[in-house]
User: Fold these one by one.
Assistant:
Number 1:
Amino acid sequence: MSSGASVNPEGGSAQHAGDTGLRRCRENDTGGSARHAGDTCPEWTASARDHPGFSGRDDSGPRLRIVVGVTGGIAAYKAVFLVRGFVLDGHDVHVVPTAAALRFVGLPTWEAISRNPVNTDPFDDVAEVRHVALGQSADLIVIAPATANSLAKLATGLADDLLGTTVLASEAPLVIAPAMHREMWENAATQANIATLRARGHTVVGPGDGQLTGDDRGVGRMSEPTEIAAAALAVVVASTGRRTRSADLAGARTRSADLVGQRILITAGGTREPLDPVRFFGNRSSGRQGVALAEAAIERGGEVVFIAANLEVPEPGGCDIHRVSTAAELREATLAAAGTARIVIMAAAVADYRPVTVSETKIKKQGDASLTLTFVANPDILAELGHSSHPGTVLVGFAAETEPEDAQLLRVARAKQEAKGADILVVNRVGWDTGFGDADNEVVVLGAAGRVLTSTNGSKMSVAHAILDAVLAHDTPT
Ligand code: CTP
């Protein structure tokens, strides 16, 4: 690239269909309107067995006592399917809706679906000390949907309702599925609460990208019930060693806690090379795919070191964050952390060139005369890592390319993988109106000798999990 403007890995839908799987991305479906879910719902019964999060009736594994906390958001209707799936898997499910949740889905629905009485008031059944008994006896607590307000309450340990006392009185793993409008999710207060909850060891599933309740789109959709169930059951396996048939399925088919005890270094965003005190030479990378990778790795129990270069999206919570701006700063931070990482993922778009000189004062316009800037090459961080010995570390690079033809795209990507010595290369297509900051992405993952390991499309979170799956399936170099 003669200008030195690096392309980035924040790719979205591809323009052309082709053999490599780089097909146009599908819109993220909203899940549609609520269906009536009851004991006679044949739709769910049929589909539960086909879903990775649920196994259908499971009499073989231990029955878990699961508390499902439901807080006041429209996604409460999706929590009905979560409860239903757990019940069909044979678990003993107790729903604790907040007062606001009951304005979306009524108490009779929760009782019928969970097949257990539902209490909402800490002063119900005082003789049984109900406000703590449920939490004390739970194997797992799942809060879905978790509103911004409920995240704030959880983060501060407020116990002004039955759900609050239940959570505080419990030592069971806590899995939280947030749902809210994008602005609320991105608000610094919500992000701080999420970081607090993750740092405490709780598992946060989603939220996903896509259509929200109104006309708005973005991050904030509650994850699908099957995804929440899969993550929740995997957490039980990881924390207690108890295996259930449904947890086996969850771990095998979707995400699991397979990164526990592993350090993952992820770079994201785009570097900026200053020209003068007010201008820089940069690129259009938002950092969204890199953030999704960090969140996915954290969700799977990984210890993430995240190097953020000028992100346009909120930082991931619950990880060690280093903020950088230029390629030189990114290089320094990356090389310092790479040695102890099991996986290094170079998702950042690094400027290939920087101006030879940086003006101390603002460069002034010289009448109508043209301006010539001279650039010098930046070091290639991925190549530097790839060409040094890195036993025990899987090195993952990205290649965002503009080639319209799939075959040519893969040729370019394979040449890049070889030149840089990356163990794995994630390839996506970018263009003027493709890829940058999009909610979805479409990638092909290349392994040893440029072999296609997988090709996938969907939300950047689902793509992140697919990339991690491919990385973990890849043989660790020795
Ligand atoms: N990369 C890097 N250091 C650089 C440039 C890129 O580490 N100075 C990494 C990126 O983080 C990415 C991979 O190399 O993982 C590919 O980046 P890309 O910009 O696609 O490749 P370039 O080497 O810049 O090649 P070109 O711009 O010519 O396509």
Note: The chain is about 30% helix and 20% strand.
Number 2:
Amino acid sequence: AETLLRVEDLKKYFPIRKGVLQRVVGNVRAVDGISFTVRPGETLGVVGESGCGKSTMARTILRLIEPTSGVVEFEGKNVVTLTKSAMREMRREMQIVFQDPYASLNPRYSIGKTLLDPMEIHHLYTPAQRKQRVAQLLDKVGLDPDYTNRFAHEFSGGQRQRIGIARALTVNPKLLILDEPVAALDVSVQSQVLNLLSDLQDDLGLTYIFVAHDLSVVRYISDRVLVLYLGHMAELTDADELFANPLHPYTRALLSAVPVPDPDAKRERIILKGDLPSPANPPAGCPFHTRCPVAMDVCSKEVPAWQEVKPGHRVACHLYQ
Ligand code: SF4
Ligand code: MG
């Protein structure tokens, strides 16, 4: 199949500095060797607890944070080696929507200016076309096109997220990286925004990377799901397969916390012991071994390989090797 985005062995280490000389004494390994591909038009969900490296990964793909190493190939071009100006150009194709739309909207800009700005920065369209696009996009995201003179504070959280989505779409991107786009919203509003994203995807042929800590949200929108733990890949497969047949013990624990609609189909809740280890001092062997309910001797000694155990179903766990 075609590939829109290919990420290969992506790493982001943040140096830890100490003392007057600010010497590097270690690294926080936020993203520690992540690889995946995204096909045009699909949604890849990326899940894990906070601190698992999801947001750093999202920002590193766009080089809002520079990666330590690895390849990020968009339509065959390695964006990691692009010049700053070529990267700015590339960002037109890959836009990000953040969790907190309020923090990412300039409070002194009207909604009209908020949406016109990216098109002006990228020298896209004529002034008349830009105005027309603003009205069209507001309508597309379910807002009144007459809202252009209002300011972000006049809107609810859900409306602000619609504005954030409209702004990302002004420059006509192919890929949207959605970083916990509904996490800050009420549950009733969450489903409206998810429906909107789903409609926009069908309508505009968009490709999504959808980052979330909530598996039920991810299930709804994703074609495939990548589970991350402590900056590492734990499991990657089709969304239906992941929910029907989770292999990695961490995925099983995450799934056990998702409420099931059918009360007879009771699932036992798996409570993980201990806290997420520090990514500055990750465990040897399998990064999950300190909390894994079925850890074996080998798990603290050897890093499990990332293996395709069935067609399209990959997992990093000694249970399957
Ligand atoms: Fe658990 Fe071992 Fe599998 Fe890691 S490799 S998830 S510790 S069984
Ligand atoms: Mg879809």
Note: Residues 43, 198, 201 surround magnesium ion (ligand 2) (CB under 6 Å).
Number 3:
Amino acid sequence: MRIPRKLEHVHYALQLGQSGKQGFSDIKLIHNCIPEASTELITLQTSIGELNLSSPIIVNAMTGGAQETEEINRDLAVAARETGIAMAVGSQMSALKNPEVASSYKVVREMNPSGLVFGNLGSEATVEQALRAVDMLQADALQIHLNVMQELIMPEGDRDFRGMLERIASIADKVGVPVIVKEVGFGMAKESALALLETGVAAIDVGGYGGTNFAAIENARRKQPMEWLNDWGCSTAVALLESAEALKESRHNGRQIALIGSGGIQGSLEVVKALALGASAVGIAGAFLRTLRTEGVDALISQIGHMHRELKLVMTALGAPTVAQLWNAPVVLSGETAQWCSARGIN
Ligand code: FNR
């Protein structure tokens, strides 16, 4: 019997791992030896549109749609509930087409009735599908993922990507909850971010290169792999700098639109660096999946709690008691990230 695609994604995400080339080694935070801060007074609260989050860490979209993925979603939801963090489910399109598998998504709301749960669909979705996806979970927000390169590498993937911006704008207008538009690991450049900022979305998740690699995953599934595409995309650090520049240039400089950093974030230092580059929150997928599958749900709960404590320590050292104050923390860029920014006129 053929293994469902969703399970293959879990399998290959774990087997292939992460390159770690998300660009954060090129970002240096500057130590503040006289911080006007106390760990007791640090708050991790942040916001995405109208949503208030008690932590900037989000369990990013992964799965649903098959029996084994229901167990993964149940455990992720328990970890999110116990640590008070927001969680997204994987693409719900399979449940919209086949209601029998809806329980593998609904389990997330059942396990976490009062937590923040984000729905997820691709940019091919219609307004009607978006409404049904939100309704399925009583979702607090809806993620719309952009995965052009992943589709192109899949032999059975989409080939026609016209009309994405219009569909995203209609969904943002009609769905009634904040919409987060997200890449899945190929990154977002300023030009794309500028266009997306005009669609009425509440947040953009830059989903950069350097973490879970969907080019490599789809190539591992293909009979005739196109491995020359495995390094496609821009790093998470670059994607954040590009998107922050778009925010500066756009009429949304007042920042009603949030940036989310994701792609290869595994530890607290990477979280802080993403926030210092202008993110309001970070999404973590592969690293949490690995802990869950190798060590179990209690280990995942401890890992997230540990990260929260570490974040508070580093924010104290930087003299930045809130996430928004971290945006002003000075950083020095080096290496390929600095070269990229200079070539692109980003400062
Ligand atoms: C994903 N990701 C994802 N994203 C999305 O928007 N819809 C989806 O259905 C999925 N499915 C999925 C399955 C698995 C097994 C993984 C590991 C990831 C992408 C995910 O949300 C994220 O954008 C990337 O994985 C990059 O982040 P990490 O994994 O490097 O932290």
Note: Residues 23 and 237 are 5 Å apart (CA to CA).
